[in-house]
Amino acid sequence: MKRHQLLAAAALVAAVTLTACSASDAPVSGGGAGGAGAAGDGPAVDGGTLKIGLDRPFAKLDPADSTLTSMPLMVLANALYDPLMVNGDNGTVQPYLAKSFTPNADATVWTLDLREGVAFSDGKPLDAQAVAAHVARLAKPESKCPCAGDAAAIGGTAVTGPTTVTFTLKAPDAAFPNLFTRSLGYISEAPNGSSPAVGSGPYTVESVQPGVSVTVTRNPAYWGAKGHADKIVYRVLPDADSRYQSLRAGDTDLIWTETPGQLKQAAADGVRTATGPGSTSTVLFNTKSAPFDDVRVRQAVQYAIDREALEKVVFLGQGAVSDGPINSRSQYRSAAAAYPAHDAAKARALLAEAGHPDLAFDYLTDSRPESLQRATVLQQMLGEAGIKTTIKPLDATSLGTALFQRNFQVMDFVTSIFGDTDAALNSLYVPNSAYNFMNWSDPDASKAIAAGRASTDLAKRSAEYRQAAQRIVGEAPMAFLTENTVGFLATADVGGLPDLSKRTVLSVSPATLWVKR
């Protein structure tokens, strides 16, 4: 498919996408309790009910549930739980419930100092012992928390004072505090029948229907600045178009979106946005499965893809191209990385050299409209280089099974993990990691990742990570496609929306938002 043909198709895709589904004391991210938000918001308004539409169901309100700590649902998690650390601009993390989180010289021992006087919603103190108990609970296999893998990096936990915890790690980790922005950092008591969520957040649960809705009310004993809204009602609205129409009709005040057509239409509809580059689209290669065990074949697919044209068609100019594992907003970023430019002739030459001039494979993807659009455009691009692809849509469960069992040759992979460069590099590209879906191993990359993770010097860590990124792009265990704009849409009545444009993780506290009406 030629570039001009791709761009001509963009208008049709826009129509399809819109109607189809898919460091301070300011709480987490927002205008700050008690103050003004974005320009034009005016003074904050207290009282009333804020109505939020969620894009996916939740099974329970426990931080052990990865659904609750996914970016779209952190707007709910942040109502109930205070994180120890919060995500700042450019991939940085800052203390919040923690006062400080400091390492020893080689980043093997970390000392956490907590705020004093913080209590759970049931009145019990949130102290050092509570932190240790929370981490121990989520580390157990029966918690079923994906964060158990992170907790496994801890060799020992010691309560060394009323508000002080010392963690001794099994290996140096200069980015250890990053692990405490979500599940491990949302300090909680285990939920029970009468208390589905026991945290220290600005709101407490009034009623809940798992997978359907939850209503929270302002926590009268909250230690920090109170939330603006008296009450927040969350409803699960999984259909993207229905969720957007609910916003336009005023039935909801705030929704999450990952739909390019909605982002493009928002201004015309008088809808406000708070978005950032929160996800990355990639192509995974199983490097243990022939012919993708040959780097030339993987590189050929890289050359066959026109990322700029792909972004314009599928994401309608709302995103940007991706050029490697270091997000464009990351603190480790220095300049745009060198990434193979689109060159179908080069792709053909590499395939001929590798002995696969008639390369053909199945392309596994989910059945969301944007995923199928992306797969279709890739199919046409690869066809220009003589590569035949058969698109195989799978349901989410089957796709996840194929991913974790490495039962694929090539797979569509959209993830938010690149919002945390440290986690992405150490999870996806090191041998024996549960998340090294590509079965890829490279001694030079592993050495650079380990050296970067062990260094508390930002410049050295950045240099090592950039070296690892160069190896990853060059060896192509995955092809990088686009950085995708995602985030929140709100009615004109909502104040306090934060600027998320420099964020790699989009975490918003509803306590900082207000309803003007």
UniProtKB/TrEMBL annotation:
Superkingdom: Bacteria
Alphabetic keyword roster: Signal, Transport
One Pfam family, short name: SBP_bac_5
Keyword Phosphoprotein in record: no
InterPro entries on file: Peptide/Ni-bd (IPR030678), SBP_5 (IPR039424), SBP_5_dom (IPR000914)
Cleavable signal peptide: 1-22
Domain Solute-binding protein family: 92-431
PROSITE patterns assigned: PROKAR_LIPOPROTEIN (PS51257)
Keyword Ribosomal protein part of the UniProt annotation: no
Chain segments annotated as transmembrane: none
SUPFAM superfamilies associated with the record: Periplasmic binding protein-like II
Family of this protein: Belongs to the bacterial solute-binding protein 5 family.
Name of the protein this chain belongs to: ABC transporter substrate-binding protein
UniProt source species: Yinghuangia aomiensis
